[in-house]
Amino acid sequence: MIILYFQTEIARLEQNYRKLEYKLTQSQSNSRQFFPKTLEKDSDDLVVIYNRVPKTGSTSFVGVAYDLCKKNHFKVLHINITANMHVMSLSNQYKFAQNVTMWQEVKPALYHGHMAFLNFERLGTSTKPVFINLIRKPLDRLVSYYYFLRNGDNFRPHLVRKKHGDKMTFDECVEKNQADCDPNTMWLQVPFFCGAMKPGSQWALEQAKHNLVNHYLLVGVTEEMLDFISVLEAVLPRIFKGATEHYLNSNKSHLRQTSSKIDPTQRTIDKIQKSIVWKMENELYEFALEHFKFFQRKVLMKENLGVPQTYFYEKIRPKL
After folding, report:
1. Cα(187)–Cα(177) distance, rounded to whole angstroms?
2. Fewest Cβ atoms closer than 10 Å to its Cβ: which of 98, 165, 190, 197?
3. Signal peptide position in this chain (predicted)?
4. Under 8 Å CB-to-CB from 225, ≥6 apart: which residues?
5. Phi, then psi, of 125 in degrees rounded to 5
6. Strand pairing partners for 131?
């Protein structure tokens, strides 16, 4: 018992020492970090594009942004494309890219809408926006959309959807090989990251992964919305300052829940998961989840001290 007591005390003292050492390092590092005088102007030039995938919790996330925009002094703009076409024509892509980068009056801004990814470098803009997105387990997203078309949601409960009155369950739909539950209809999240609409394209999947890693600041998953918001607040405080607390203490986490949704049976799940499209969409989801977890650890990383990571410059020659 005496040995255990002294071991505990030694561990506690070592921990306190490390914390004091960290605070000393942090105070010294503050004078050895470079903070450009133009930081405020640069942050006010910020443009974030959220090309939201349908039925991934995007309404809840955007609701937080609308609540914060006045407090944090930024604009939120909804992109409405004719007939819900997800892929813009080439001429509209160019016009949109010019608008986003040159419309100074609305900056800083968060644009959101159901649209496929645009490569701003290819469109010849001098600057490019920050892309973010959320994706969801592909079968969960399909089932949610299936019942959404029939029963609506709690966001606009009195709005009659186009399949209103259809009582066929998702299981029955799959059993009868109907179009609404065809696995090809899951081919949506991959195209949102690459713009290729042909179901089952291996090139499209690889391009979607490439764009996710190289052109997106952050891609989260619906199932971990809170973590997604927390990382955004840490990385983009100019827009998302206070977002985590707001999300936790408001009703935004419950927006647009599909009404009367019935979970599919294991038999239905097994049948869907045999399809090439599900395998590719799920591969993108798993890839995005792994990448998000890696990014989350880096952004919110805490070392053994239980304190955030920092950095500073040393050996500056000649001296400033």
Report:
1. 17
2. 165
3. none
4. 57, 60, 61, 134, 247, 253
5. -85, 150
6. 49, 216
Report which secondary-structure segment, H or E, holds 187: none
Catalytic residues: 112, 114
When divided into structural domains, the chain yields a total of 1
- What is the CATH classification number for the domain harbouring 115? 3.40.50.300
Residues 6+ away with beta carbon under 8 Å from 81: 88, 113, 114, 115
Cβ-count burial of 50 within 10 angstroms (0-12 exposed, 13-18 middle, 19+ buried)? buried
Contact, 170 vs 145, CB < 8 A?
no
Is residue 320 domain-resident? no
Q: Is residue 194, in this structure, part of any structural domain at all?
A: yes
**What is the reported pLDDT for 195?**
78
Choice between 38 and 266, residue whose per-residue pLDDT is larger: 266
Composition of the chain by helix, strand, coil, percent to 5:
55, 10, 35
Q: Cis peptide leading into 54, omega within 30 of 0?
A: no
Indicate the average pLDDT of the chain. Answer: 85
What is the distance between the alpha carbons of residues 254 and 150, in angstroms, rounded to a whole number? 19
Q: What is the mean pLDDT of residues 302-309?
A: 53
User: Tell me, what's the pLDDT at 297?
Assistant: 86
**Domain extent for 140:** 42-299
Dist. CA 74–CA 47, nearest whole Å: 10
pLDDT value of position 185: 92
Say if 305 falls within a structural domain: no
- Residue 202: is it exposed, middle or buried by C-beta count within 10 angstroms (0-12/13-18/19+)? exposed
Burial zone of 186 (CB within 10 Å; 0-12 exposed, 13-18 middle, 19+ buried) = buried
Q: What is the DSSP letter of 31?
A: G
